[in-house]
Model the fold of this input.
Amino acid sequence: MTAFRKSEDRFVVSASALQERAEVRTTNGNTNGRFDLLQIRPIRWLLHQRAFQWVLTTATLFFFLLAILTGLFGTPAGNKNFSIIFVWIVWWALVIIVLVPFAGRFWCTMCPIPIPGEWAQRRSFIGKRPGKLLGLGKKWPRRLRNIWLQNFAFLGVAILSGVLLTRPQATGLVLLLFVVAAFALSLIFERRAFCRYLCPVGGFIGLYSMAAPVELRVRDRDVCRTHTEKTCYLGSAEGYGCPWLVFPGALERNTYCGLCTECLKTCDRNNIVVNLRPPGSDLLVQKGRRLDEAFKGFIMVACAMIYSAVFLGPWGWLKDMANPATSSGQGMASPTRYLAYAGAFLAINLLVLPGLFYATTWLAKRLGGLKTTPRKMFIEYAYTLVPLGLLAWIAFSLAFVFVNGSYAFAVISDPFGWGWDLFGTKGFPWTPFVPQVVQYLQTGLLAGGLVTAVYLAYRIGRQNGADHAGALRAAMPITVFLTTVTLVFLRLYLG
Amino acid sequence: MRVFSQRLSQQGLIVVVVFVSLSLLVAFAPVPVDALAGTPTTREITVEGRMFDFSPNVIRVNKGDHVVIDFAAMDVVHGLYVDGYGIETEAEPGVPTRVEFVADKAGKFRYRCSVSCGAMHPFMIGELIVGPNTPFWRAVGLTLLAAVGALVFTATNRTEAAR
Done:
């Protein structure tokens, strides 16, 4: 507390100076439309509390454990089981419709999955315990320091979505697997290896958080360069070194910063800022674009498309194929059909969509006279899928959240489906919420995503050396691709 | 998004105004849907529900048609709820039920099982398409306008930041 009071003293400034400091200035005086939220005293106070993250994660851990227990031991009827309704409707809606687009990785701030492992590593719930972290503390293998494992983990979960979204036991088991894996990895590898390299959710949250209007950055990089202690990365008496293995002084994108706020506590130079910024700022950062992230973009768009067909479409045969455990009118669904579905699912995600896009970027390179390699163009232009993919996921999610969200009122009173009525809402009827309005929201979201993606395609062309006309010519085939993707979504939702 | 945060040039502003106006026109311009739909008739359709699909899974009618649905559950109890029309019925196996309504709204409306019938119940869905499906074609028009508009905007909005 003493240290915090000292830092508090440093923040005592007059009202006019506060305004001046609130606008995060670069060396040339340009604020780039950013506003440091830490200049708001209650926010600064809150984020400096060691208990801040503990309170959030403990609350979500309670619901997480309840989801595991209800999944494993509750009713097998998905729409009457807490695990299905709260994980795949309430939590999913919270993450993809609210948190990611408006707060980036804020879900990672409160995510309960790595918390038991982190408590074990630190041998502490809240405070900073001196000494080394518990566990072997091994370095993560160099060749796996990317998000390929997250991509495949997401595909693994997505390919089983027909089971996971409908079978509480499957959902409970997967959640249990996540927490056990995170715990085991935290005892073997240093810090939050699970979050950084394996979590299937963290992968797409990281990618889409580039579009968010919030960022954690340093105020002045020169301060970091001369700060030899690097307490933000290595830790100090005030807190732990960055659990996400990120050096804040080098942060240019949100992708791998888990917003755990640990660096706020450990930076003794008052050099960390949490900015409100123009949404999508990171999409213009060329540094750091990689093939694994590009494929995450394809996987997310392809999965949104396939989910829209399977779960919102009228094709019963497709639902049967996607769910190997379903008993249909003709008996149990055939494993062969499920394997065919899985094969097609993987092919669309990893071959068809990326292959078509590769051909498109090859054409863009030719038309725009771009000098870079086809592989680089493929990677660079793939980031146009970030805004379109994020808004397509929101569009998809609105459709089933609005229709099925009312189940939450019933299961909160009877989470196991055992006949309880804890809050008197057990009998709350299934009530679709304005289902016909959803189509208009979907149209607006998709059109907004398309406009952003097309303009981003032009900017990417400029970043890669094309002149104005060349960047425009290069953007045309990309626009055709993006428009086609958008029209496929529209066909599924409205056509 | 950030990519649009730069200043608008005069030409860029004109493009935005033109394309927003065109978009509003495409979205809201009156279309003689009733004339396009033709003379209303009565459509009698038998819909069978079984885990986890409907047969037929797509019903096409015209705006103004009098729609009569005989709904039969083939295995367990199923419900039939039509989005946008709020019509609901349920049937036990061997005991079909009938609902009638006038299809007075154009577009695509999902019909879904409203009685919990098994694992994939929330996804047991069919489609009622009331033609002409103007909402879909308006959405297509808006999408094409959005794509062309974004390109024209980039071509004309040559501020320093964009160069």
